[in-house]
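Section 3.1: Structural characterization of target chains.
Under the original work plan, the team committed to producing a structural model for every single-chain target entering the pipeline before any wet-lab resources were allocated. The record below documents one such target. The sequence was received from the expression subgroup and is listed exactly as submitted; it comprises 56 residues.
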Amino acid sequence: MNKMDKKTEIVRQEAYESLPPAIKESLTPEEKELFLTAEQWPESLFTKLDEFITKE
C-alpha cells in the first residue's frame, strides 16, 4: 500500500471529523482506519456513508 501524502491525510482527517457523531460511532475501528488511509474503500463503508458521498 502506498503512503498517502500529508495533504491527503489532512483532508481525510477533516472529512472524518465532519461526519455526524452517529455515523462516526457506527464505524468499526477497521472501517475508521480504511476511511482515513485506504486507496479504495470496501462496499460496506460506502453503504454507511452513502448520504455523504457525491458522485463525480
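Residues 6-18 form the longest helix (13 residues).
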